[in-house]
């Protein structure tokens, strides 16, 4: 039996959808979040935080990905300077390791040397964006004698590197980028070490369960099918989505009959796509290019997780450099003499050259008006690449309700928008769980309130509840004060 095409073309329809319908009933009063009970056998957390990069106007997504129709040179095109005055940097322009912190850092180094090859000593360089790409470029240029100002829309530094420090959390909590891939990671890890920022090994041990909580034997069905589909797509005359490649290649023609614990190979394939492909890229399978997709291996050997305040690395890099915080750039005008930057609050700033490091999603939204318009090649590359969505919900519990020591959890054949959970107990010795939502689900869930999101998250964790650790007669725990974080 073959997998239905619709499986890959839409996100999962979970209990959240039902909650939305109920919440939108016209004649029903809206209960306050504090009065709404959590209906789950999973205990409520003592602390809770969520991210919402999808709704953040300064990012409009989490990471770039190769969308269907992307060209091989789109990222290289974005690295090309315009009139030797306007430059772009960021993970979406990275030559190697795009969509990663190390890719963003490398792009910042590259653009700094590109500017230095053209600019005269002492020129004024404006850098738009204080993420790791902008900070890296700023540090190199300042140390080389240039007059640099960093213009940042947020009231903090770091961009999509964002760290939460607070009494509710036993260690600095990374709300944005947190995992340093083993690929091209040496330079970033060296800088973290020099700054005395702690990392831990992020080699994951995965456990898959049924909705009933039964542990499943490891399987490579999903991984093998995706690999087969990508191999087939590589020799096709035109690009296609991963979803279409799975179906048209026949790779998705796996057994749909129920096997052990009632789980079929179709279920295993669906789970792999949701928990590895979509979470890894931020893109749904019907949007991801089968020509250029590089399916990430979550928790590969050599990966490291930052647990010691990643944001402080960027703050340290920009120390001593002029920064204009809370200053959103709304317009960039190229003139014969330089670049004029228009701020949203009405001021303007002039520079000899400008480096724009805002995320791809901001460029795609047209949040910055360029005069004259960007060359067609640049506009085409911006439109062709995809901006993926990935968000987190992080919960700390007073005591663990689970007994498994696996560091990555997933429910097969489960109707959930949280396809992957990271268990921080074996990694950090703390009962903290990190739920990941990605693709269409992340965009949809960005509209949900904290209480509804927590409800769905706790329900999705029920297969991992150890009844011996949770007393059915215990009174409900006090609800935490949820907080949102998107930067």
From TrEMBL:
Q: Taking every annotated instance into account, which residue ranges of this chain make up the domain Amine oxidase?
A: 41-115, 132-466
This protein's name:
Oxidoreductase
Q: Which UniProt keywords apply?
A: Signal
Q: Report a single Gene Ontology molecular function.
A: oxidoreductase activity
- Keyword Signal in record: yes
> Known PANTHER family for this protein?
FLAVIN MONOAMINE OXIDASE, LYSINE-SPECIFIC HISTONE DEMETHYLASE 2
Give the signal peptide, or none: 1-22
Domain of life, per lineage: Bacteria
């Amino acid at each position: 039996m073959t997998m239905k095409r619709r499986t890959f073309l839409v996100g999962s329809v979970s209990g959240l959808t039902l909650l939305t319908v109920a919440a939108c009933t016209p004649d029903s009063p809206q209960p306050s979040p504090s009065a709404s009970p959590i209906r789950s056998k999973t205990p409520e957390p003592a602390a809770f935080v969520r991210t919402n990069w999808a709704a953040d106007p300064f990012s409009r997504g989490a990471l770039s990905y190769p969308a269907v129709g992307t060209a091989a040179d789109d990222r290289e095109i974005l690295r090309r300077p315009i009139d030797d005055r306007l430059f772009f940097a960021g993970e979406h322009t990275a030559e190697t390791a795009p969509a990663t912190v190390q890719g963003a850092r490398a792009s910042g180094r590259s653009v700094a040397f590109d500017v230095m090859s053209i600019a005269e000593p002492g020129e004024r360089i404006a850098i738009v964006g204080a993420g790791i790409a902008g900070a890296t470029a700023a540090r190199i240029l300042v140390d080389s004698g240039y007059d640099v100002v960093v213009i940042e829309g947020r009231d903090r530094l770091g961009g999509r590197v964002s760290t939460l420090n607070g009494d509710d959390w036993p260690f600095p909590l990374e709300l944005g980028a947190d995992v340093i891939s083993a690929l091209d990671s040496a330079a970033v890890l060296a800088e973290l070490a020099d700054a005395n920022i702690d990392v831990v090994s992020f080699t994951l041990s995965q456990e898959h369960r049924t909705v009933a909580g039964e542990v499943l034997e490891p399987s490579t069905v999903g991984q093998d099918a995706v690999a087969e589909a990508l191999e087939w797509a590589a020799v096709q005359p035109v690009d296609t989505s991963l979803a279409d490649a799975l179906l048209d290649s026949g790779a998705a023609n796996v057994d749909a009959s129920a096997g052990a614990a009632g789980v079929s190979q179709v279920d295993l394939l669906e789970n792999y796509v949701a928990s590895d492909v979509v979470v890894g890229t931020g893109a749904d399978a019907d949007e991801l290019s089968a020509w250029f997709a590089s399916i990430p291996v979550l928790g590969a050997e050599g990966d490291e997780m930052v647990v010691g305040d990643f944001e402080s690395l960027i703050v340290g890099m920009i120390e001593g450099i002029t920064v204009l915080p809370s200053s959103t750039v709304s317009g960039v005008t190229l003139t014969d003499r330089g670049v004029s930057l228009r701020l949203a609050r009405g001021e303007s700033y002039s520079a000899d050259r400008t480096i724009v490091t805002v995320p791809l999603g901001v460029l795609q939204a047209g949040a910055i008006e360029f005069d004259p318009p960007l060359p067609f090649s640049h506009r085409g590359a911006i439109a062709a690449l995809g901006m993926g969505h990935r968000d987190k919900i992080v919960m700390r519990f007073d005591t663990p309700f689970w007994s498994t020591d696996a560091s990555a959890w997933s429910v097969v054949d489960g109707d959930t928008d949280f396809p992957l959970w990271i268990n921080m107990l074996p990694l950090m010795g703390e009962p903290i769980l990190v739920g990941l939502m990605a693709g269409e689900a992340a965009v949809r869930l960005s509209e949900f309130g904290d209480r509804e999101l927590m409800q769905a998250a706790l329900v999705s964790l029920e297969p991992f509840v150890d009844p011996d650790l949770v007393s059915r007669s215990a009174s409900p725990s006090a609800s935490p004060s949820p907080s949102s974080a998107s930067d």
